[in-house]
Amino acid sequence: MPYPTDRERDRPWVMRTYAGHSSAAASNALFRRNLAKGQTGLSVAFDLPTQTGYDPDDELARGEVGKVGVPLTHLGDMRALFDQIPLAEANTSMTINAPAMWLLALYQVVAEEQAQASGLDRETVLATLAGTTQNDIIKEYLSRGTYVFPPGPSLRLITDMVAYSVTAIPRWNPINICSYHLQEAGATPVQEVSYALCTAIAVLDSVRDSGQVPPERFGDVVGRISFFVNAGLRFVEEMCKMRAFSQLWTELVAERYGVSDAKQARFRYGVQVNSLGLTEAQPENNVQRIVLEMLAVTLSRDARARAVQLPAWNEALGLPRPWDQQWALRMQQVLAFETDLLEYEDLFAGSHVVERAVADIVDGARAEIDRVQAMGGAVAAVETGYMKSALVSSLAERRRRMESGDDVVVGVNRFDGSEPSPLQAEGAGAIEVVDPAVEAAAVAAVQCWRAGRDPIRVEEALRALRDAAGTDANLVGASVVCARAGVTTGEWAGALREVFGEYRAPTGVSAASGGGDPGSEIARVRENVRVAGEQVGGRLRMLVGKPGLDGHSNGAEQIAVRARDCGFEVVYQGIRLTPAQIVSAAVQEGVHVVGLSVLSGSHMEVVPAVVEGLAAAGAGDVPVVVGGIIPPEDAAALLRRGVSRVFTPKDYSMTDIMDEIVTVVVNAHTP
Description:
Elements: E1 14-16, E2 18-19, H1 24-36, E3 42-45, H2 48-51, H3 75-81, E4 91-95, H4 100-118, H5 122-128, E5 130-133, H6 137-140, H7 151-168, E6 172-173, E7 175-178, H8 180-184, H9 189-210, H10 218-223, E8 225-231, H11 235-257, H12 262-265, E9 269-273, H13 286-296, E10 307-309, H14 322-337, H15 352-374, H16 378-383, H17 386-404, H18 437-451, H19 455-469, H20 476-485, H21 489-500, H22 519-536, E11 541-545, H23 554-565, E12 569-572, H24 579-589, E13 593-598, H25 603-616, E14 624-628, H26 632-640, E15 645-647, H27 654-668
Helix pairs in contact: 1-3, 4-20, 7-9, 9-11, 9-15, 11-13, 11-15, 17-23, 19-20, 19-21, 22-27, 24-25
Keywords: Cobalamin, Cobalt, Isomerase, Metal-binding
Protein name: Protein meaA
Subunit structure: Heterodimer of an alpha and a beta chain.
C-alpha cells in the first residue's frame, strides 16, 4: 500500500565529502567538481602544518605539506581555495581546531572581498555566511592530537569565537563539538556521549561566565552549538546512541541554561562514519561497512543527522581519488533520493527494544558526566589524564576482543581468503599520490608571500595580537587584522605561543589497563622478551615514537601498552617530535629498538631521517620498525633504506608484532 502523499517529506541532509590536498588551487578544482556532481556542502580537510599552526617551511612540517589536506598559509591561499565559489551561498565545514579562529578570520576576509567585488553590503554577506568550524580543541588532547596551546588558553579561543560569531556571523556554527575522534580513540557509546557533553558544558559555562554575551542572547549561543559524531558498524546501537545524545542535550540546555525554545535547544549534528574502522585487507568490504554506518544516522527521523560525509572505500590504503569520493557521494544520493526513507515518520517510535537501549546509554552517560563534573569538569579531567586513560583502556579492550576473535572483522580475523581485487589492480595507482614537488612549491610560495608584504603592517598586527592575548579582550578582531595584513598561519600561532606557551598532553599509557586477561600468547612472548634481554645484557627497552605532526596516536599508545604487557621497558614521549628529538631520546635511553608510527603519509621523509640520524649518532645498530598506512611500494623502499620491519593495518595481532620485534632485536645483536 503506498504511503500517504499528504505527509511532509523530510528534507535531505547536507551531503559532503571530506576533501583537500596538495594546494589551494588543486583543492579548489576538486571542490568545484564535487559541487557539480550534486554535493550540497563543502568539508575542507587541512594539512597537518595548517592544523597545528606551522608554515610549510618549518622543520616540523617536513614531509607533511599537502598530504592529508590542503595547506592554508595566508590570505592568498584562502582566496585561491574558494575562487569562483560564492561564500555567501556556500555551506562550508572546516575541520580545524587550535587555529580555528585564524581560519575563520581568513574566511571572513575573503567573504568581505567577494562582497566588495560583487557590489554587495559587507554586513549582509556576513549575516548569510553558513558553515562550521570544528574548533573542539578539548577533544584534541584526548584523541586527534592537533592541539597547540594549554587547555585554559584553548578554551579562551573557543569562547571568543562563540561570543564573536553569535553577533557578527549569526548563521555560523563556531564550534562543532566532536565526539567522532573519541570513538576512534576507544570510547564506548557512554563515554562518547558523556565526554562530548562535558566539553559542551565547559564551553557554554565559559561563554556565559565571560560576560561577552548578554543573558537574553544566551539562547542564541546554545542554538549555534553543533556536534560532529562517529557512526560505527553496530548500527542499531549507534542509532540508539544518537537518540540518547538528543535526549540528554535537551535536558542539559533546559536545566543548566534555561533554554527551552525548541529551535534553540534542538540537537544539531553532522556525521562522518568511521574511517579508522575501514580495513586494508579486502578493502572492497569497506563499501558495505560505509553504507551500514550511514544507516545508523539516517534511519531514525527523530535523531537524523543534518549533514553527512562518508569516507571512501580505500582510505585504509591511502588518499582517495576523486572517483572514490564520487562513489561515496553517490551512496548518499541513492539513499536520499531513490529510497522511501524520507517519506516516513520515525521508524522506531514506541519500540521497547530501542527505548531500553537508549535508557541504558542515558543512565550510563549521566553517571559519567557527574563523575567528570565532580573532578572539576572536562578541562580538569584532561589535565589529570583521567579521560585519556579511560579511552586508552577502552581501546585496549576493543583490540583484545578483535585479536581473540570475540569480535569478528570480516577479511581480517575471519573469512580472510580472497580473490585478487580488481579495485586494487592498479597498485599505487589505486590511491591519490601527492607529488613531493608540492612541498617544495609551498615552501617557495610562502617565502615569496612574505617578501611581498608590508613588514611594518605585519609586525604591528602581530604586536596587537600579542598584546590582546595578554588581556581578556576578544581575539577575533585582532586575528582579522592579521589576516588582512598578510600574516601567515605560523606567525599567528607563533605570536600566541609566545603568550600562552605550548602544551604536551598526558598520553594515558602509564595508567591504562591492558584490556582483560592477557592469555597464554602474551605469556609466551613475555618469556621471549625475558630470554632476549638476557642475551643482550638487560631488560629490552623499546622507544615508541611519533615523528612529524601526525597526531593520530591511538595505534602508538596501544603498541606501547602491549609492549609493556609483554615485558618491554617502554619509552613513549607522545606526539609531534622531530626525527632529531627521537634519535636523541633513543641514544639517551639506550633503547634496543625504535618503533615509529606514521599515518599521515610522511613516512618516506621522516622514517629515513630517523634511520640516518641514528647512524650519525653512532647508534646505527639500533633497529627501526615502522607501523602505519604504508603502501606496499613504499614499504619495500623503506626496507631498502634500512628499516627492519614494516607493519600495516592488516597486521592486527599486536602480540605477534611484539614477537617479531623480539626477533628483530635478537638478530641485530647476533654477530
